[in-house]
Amino acid sequence: MPALIANTFVACVLQAAHVNGLPPDVLAAVIIAERGDIGAASRNRNGSEDLGVMQINTSAWLQHVARAHAGGDASRAYTRLRDDSCYNVAVGGWILARAIESAHGDVWQGVGFYHSRTPRFAESYRQRVRRIHRRIASRRSAATTAQR
C-alpha cells in the first residue's frame, strides 16, 4: 500500500477513534480482526452481507446508515460502506462505541458485542481482538524503545 494511502487510512482510524471516544489501538485491532477490505462484500448464511474494512453487517446497520447519511437511499449507503474505507471506519467506530456503551463502558465486552450478542461468539471474537491488540501494543512499545 503506498505510503500516502496508508497515512490517510491511519488518519481516518485516529479521527474515528477520537470522535467516538475509543482507544485507537482497540479500533485498529477490530479492523484487523475483521479482515475486510475496500470493496469487500462478504455474504453470510442468512443472506446479509458484511461490507468494507470493518465488515459492517447490512441486516443490522444498512437501513440505519441509509436514514442517517444517505437520505434513506440504501443503495447509496451500501456502496459507500463497501467502497469508502474512511467512511466505513467512521461508521464502524460509531457502532463499536455504541456496543461499548451497551456494555456499560466495558471495552472488551463491547468489542465482543460489536461482533455478536451470542455469548460464545462474542467471547471468541473478544479473545481474537485482544490477541491482536497485544501485538499492536508490543510493536508500539518496541518502536518507542528503539527510538530512544
Which terms summarize this structure?
Lysozyme; Lysozyme-like_dom_sf; 148 residues; mainly alpha; 72% helix; globular
Word description of this protein:
The protein is globular, with a radius of gyration of 15 Å. α1 (3-20) packs parallel to α5. The two termini are 28 Å apart. The chain has seven helices and three strands; from the N terminus they run ααβββααααα. The chain has a single domain (3-147), classed as Lysozyme, CATH 1.10.530. The model has no long low-confidence stretch (mean pLDDT 93). With 148 residues, the chain is mainly alpha-helical. Strands 1-2-3 form a three-stranded antiparallel β-sheet. This is Transglycosylase SLT domain-containing protein. Residues 12-116 form the Transglycosylase SLT domain. InterPro entries: Lysozyme-like_dom_sf (IPR023346), Transglycosylase_SLT_dom_1 (IPR008258).
N/C terminus separation: 28 Å
> What is the fold-level CATH name, i.e. the topology?
Lysozyme
Structural class: mainly alpha
Major sheet attributes: 3 strands, antiparallel
Please tell me the total number of domains. Answer: 1
Order of helix and strand elements from N to C terminus? HHEEEHHHHH
Provide the β-strand percentage band: 5-15%
| Average pLDDT rating | 93
Could you give the order of strands across the largest sheet?
Answer: 1-2-3
Number of DSSP E strands: 3
How many helices?
A: 7
What overall geometry do the principal axes of the alpha carbons give?
A: globular
Top CATH class: Mainly Alpha
Q: Based on the structure given, which CATH architecture is correct?
A: Orthogonal Bundle
